[in-house]
Amino acid sequence: MKFQFSVKIDRPFEEVSKLFIDPKHLHKYQEGFVKKESQSGTEGQDGAISLMYYKHGKQEMELKETVVANNLPHSFEAFYEHKHMDNTLLTKFIPISDNKTRVETEGEYVRVSWLIPKLMTILVPGMFSKPPKRWMNNFKKFVENNV
């Protein structure tokens, strides 16, 4: 299952990509984000592996992030593993003008292994693209208000 969306952010693209890669800002735009722990490699660089922790109410989630390609300020691609599903995310930063950037995100769920998520991909496929889309809109607000 694939998804794609974009937002326009009123900030220079190098500033946008710099804020995007800095993990100390994740809690400002990803609801439920608790922490990110580096496991191996240099954080944010190709091949680096980190564990990311989220909490929504009483439910906790752990993701393993592997950086596939860090080509910032132009793009960042990572692979995310969860016990029930895996996905890739490619985020591109495209300058529109000196103070405006388009951020494009392409994602694909490459493995769904539990019955309920499998059913959800069939019955409500948009459900899996909503969190990254919401986070990107939150990121836009964060960057534009981070003066």
Verbal overview:
- The structure is a single chain.
- The protein is of the alpha+beta class and 147 residues long.
- It has a single domain (2-145), classed as START domain (Alpha-D-Glucose-1,6-Bisphosphate, Chain A, domain 4), CATH 3.30.530.20.
- It contains 3 helices and 7 strands.
- The protein has helices at 13-21, 115-123, 130-145, and strands spanning 2-9, 33-40, 49-56, 59-71, 75-81, 85-97, 100-112.
- A 7-stranded antiparallel β-sheet has the order 1-7-6-5-4-3-2.
- The longest helix has 16 residues, at 130-145.
- The termini are far apart.
- 14% of the residues are buried.
- The model has no long low-confidence stretch (mean pLDDT 89).
Throw out a few tags for this protein.
single chain; 147 residues; alpha+beta; Alpha-D-Glucose-1,6-Bisphosphate, Chain A, domain 4; seven-stranded antiparallel beta sheet
